[in-house]
Amino acid sequence: MDKGKRTRFLIVMGIVLVLLLVGIFATNKGGEPHESIKEVMRDAVIHGDNKVSLFGLEVNPSLISAYIVSGILLLMALIIRIFAIPHFKIVPGKFQSLIEMWVGYFDNLAKTNSPHMNKALGAYIFAAGSYIFVGTIFELFGVQVMTTGGNPISLPAPLCDINGAIAMGVFSYGFIMSGGIRNNKIKGVGLTLKEFSLPISMSFRLFCALLSGALVTELVYYSIMLSFVLPVLVAVLFTLIHAVVQAYVLTMLTSIYYGEVSEVHEKKQKDKDKNKDNKKKKSDVAVEI
After folding, report:
1. Residue range 83-100, pLDDT digits in tens
2. Would you state the pLDDT for residue 267?
3. N- or C-end of the chain: fewer Cβ atoms within 10 A?
4. Using CA of residue 168, residue 174, residue 179, residue 180, what is the dihedral sign?
């Protein structure tokens, strides 16, 4: 970038910054929030106050987020399958390359950690990783709903609710056990149950990581009332980091443990073959003598 373009860029950015500051001070009414910071942080953890009505039932806002995210993913999958995949080419375009890269990453992860059985594993970690990533990014859109108390709130990420995080952890654990049962029968159950703390660690890792980002964002929005820039940067930074890291961690753990419990152990068969070879050698020696 030459000196003239750099100068024009700085002038434009300065004008934008001044307009933002003017807009901030012009629109700030200085009103008090309807909740204290203690209530905001507590409700972000236990969702005890801000309930949402769903067909007459009071539910946590995260449940609404979970339904919306699931619907978005299913709709995207349907659209891509009907309108995009039939037009894929040998030389991929940008969109096709993006889809192939996204699917290929989870497929390679499954083949690397479970080379003996990975078809179902690749499909599961692709679905789980996509749900975690899209569900975490979803809170950036700030979809507004009205609570049963008449206060507007933004829908959080589905896994900010401990129930959603536990469901994801337990379901992943059950999928790992299914791989063990398929290849090792009852022994696969025992191999899986040895890692009895796995669903707890996966659930609380998801919940605590996403909740920490939500709490920091709530704290910044509550405390810094005259800034549009810092809250946005903090929200985007924490959300993107948690979306990528948590999708990677859960899918990596699932694929590793699935590969371990579904691996067929042929130690006894090898011992039998070894004993047969030893007997054969002894008989050959006896014949030679």
Report:
1. 999 989 888 889 999 999
2. 56
3. C
4. positive
Distances (CA, A) of 168 to 28, 67, 124, 173, 222: 41, 14, 12, 9, 30
Burial class of residue 216 (count of CB atoms within 10 Å of its CB; 0-12, 13-18, 19+): middle
Nearest Cα residue to 108 out of 5, 266, 2, 251: 251
pLDDT tens digits, 15-32: 877 766 665 555 454 445
* Position 5 pLDDT exceeds 60: yes
Q: What is the mean pLDDT of residues 185-200?
A: 86
pTM of this structure: 0.77
- With contact defined as beta carbons under 8 Å apart, do 179 and 261 qualify? yes
The per-residue DSSP string of 182-232 comes to HHHTHHHHHHHHTTTTHHHHHHHHHHHHHHHHHHHHHHHHHH-TT-SHHHH
Q: What is the pLDDT of residues 209-242, one digit of tens each?
A: 777 776 776 666 666 554 555 666 666 777 888 8
In this structure, what token pair is assigned to residue 60? 């946590």
3-state secondary structure of 91: coil
Cβ atoms of 150 and 229 closer than 8 Å? no
Q: What residue has token string 């090792």?
A: 184
**Structure tokens given for 52:** 């949402």
- Two tokens, residue 152: 């507007």
* Stretch 152-170: mean pLDDT: 87
Q: Based on the number of CB atoms within 10 Å of its own CB, is 252 exposed (0-12), middle (13-18) or buried (19 or more)?
A: middle
How many other β-carbons are positioned within 10 Å of the β-carbon of residue 207?
Answer: 22
Please state, as a whole number, how many other Cβ atoms lie within 10 Å of the Cβ of residue 81.
Answer: 10
